[in-house]
Amino acid sequence: MVKKEIVSAANLKKEIEEAKAELTSQNKKLKLSVKTEAKKKVNKKKVVTKKKVDKKKAVTKKKVDKKKVDKKKALAKKKADKKKAVAKKKAEAKKKVDKKKAAAKEKVDKKKAEAKKKAEAKKKEEEAKKKEEEAKKKEEEAKITQEEIWEEQLTEEEIIGFQIDKTDMDKLVNRVTEMIAGYETKGILQNILWRKLKLSSRDGSRLALKLERLGNITREKILENGRWTYLLLIKKIPISTKSIENAPCLVCPVEGKCATDGEISPKTCVYIEDWVLTELKTKKRHETD
Question: Do 89 and 82 meet the contact criterion of CB atoms below 8 Å apart?
Fold first, then answer.
């Protein structure tokens, strides 16, 4: 009995110890489980918090990125609007310039059209006038001049041998030839020359025919103020000794002593001086006449 009790006590003690050990183990497990659970909770909380933070960061980043994008878009839009405004301004300025150019061109075209119209009208008028003049010229050309009648009626001997009463014909021929030569290539109308020489139309015309036959002049038939006349042009100037006829040297009493470097010299000769002055006065008088 006592033995059984001892065994029972030992078993009990053992069971108690086992129970304690089990309890300790359970406590350990429980503590571990609690710690694990707590750790899990902490980790979960951290994860949740991290997620929230990441989400918040993502939202913030998204907002920031959106702001940046919006800012870039705004700047780009501003630039585009500015560019459009400049382009619009340029287009308006170009439009104004084009409008001015068009207006100026229209004016120029209008002026050109008017000028063209005037030119055409003037051309038509000139053509009509030219036709009228040509018709008149043809009509006049059909007319025979008095000079042509005389030329047909006179023989060559009569033309070349033409004389005017009480007139030195050689001097007259030389004088008239010199006068015509003075007009060089322009020539002079015969009616003007006859008035200067105070000759009649008949004598003047016959003298012109004589000069032409002598080869001194040429006659060119022209229409002047609606009437036919002749333009007299120099052809050949005859040799004349008139310019030295009265030269004192020809009859000088001291001609033998005259020398350029002598006591008697042409440089200091009073005879030559008087002769030159007289010739100049005579020439001026003829020119005035």
Answer: no
Same domain, 197 and 272: no
Q: Which domain holds residue 256?
A: 247-289
Q: How many domains does the chain have?
A: 2
The DSSP bridge pattern shows strands 227-234 and 188-189 to be: antiparallel
Does residue 218 contact residue 208 with C-beta atoms inside 8 Å? Answer: no
* DSSP reduced 3-state for 246: coil
Task: Give all strands of the β-sheet with 227-234 in edge-to-edge order.
Answer: 188-189, 227-234, 217-224
Over residues 85-113, the mean pLDDT reads: 88
In the numeric block, which tokens belong to residue 284? 């001026």
pTM beyond 0.90, yes or no: no
Tens digit of each residue's pLDDT (9 = 90 or more) over 189-215 = 888 888 888 888 888 888 888 888 888
By the 10 Å C-beta count (0-12 exposed, 13-18 middle, 19+ buried), 180 is classed as buried
Same domain, yes or no: 278 and 235: no
Query: Which DSSP helix (H) or strand (E) runs through 202?
Result: helix 201-213
